[in-house]
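Task card 7
Instruction: Convert sequence to structure tokens.
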Amino acid sequence: MRKIQSSIALVLVVALAACGEATSSDAALNADAAATGGAASDAAATEADAQAVPNGADAVTAPAGCLGAVARVGDLEIFAYEASRADATGEAAGADSTAACSRAGVLPWADATLPEARAACAASGFALCAGADWLAVCGGEEHRLFPYGATHRPAACNDHVGGSSALEPTGARADCRTPEGVFDLSGNLAEMTEDAMKRGGSFRVNAVMYQSEYAQCDAQLRVFEGVHSDEVGFRCCRRP
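Output:
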């Protein structure tokens, strides 16, 4: 597997218009980005990139504020949070399926089919993450078993072992993140990738899959094109 360089710049793109006010988790990401010492001109360039939409009949403009946090890992840009709808709040997942958003403190987008997830990412100028890219971000150069480290930490993530048994807002658990600041890769919603797999486990307790291994970065199960599931979501990636 191709390793991805661990130099990251977390970028907060316009986050106050149609998708609500920035949350404290967004503020924390902003502080992380500042700590990297990235120049203001670099941040401005990434902001322009994150709002850009490819040409084509299916391309639409992502709602203002929709791309609240995008992490850059080497040459890959990845949603720092599980994809959400533009009108999502902390209490409701919303109904606007125009484009995928990356914001903290809102319920993520579950129930999408694989084609719907692909279309939502494309509408925001991204693509559904490739399985290899998703796994490389989750495990990092150290090939971590979990996004936060080598061993399972109960309650670090909203997983099926130590979670709440219910869907939580994006970024709700501060410890459920990679060192580079990508949240919720383990638990909350399992995440579909382009290779038709769902990865990272979900919030739902399942006696058959109670072992922590099902919350690891490399845990994967097949998904089918037209199937909806309330415990499966997605995340978007791109290489500018």
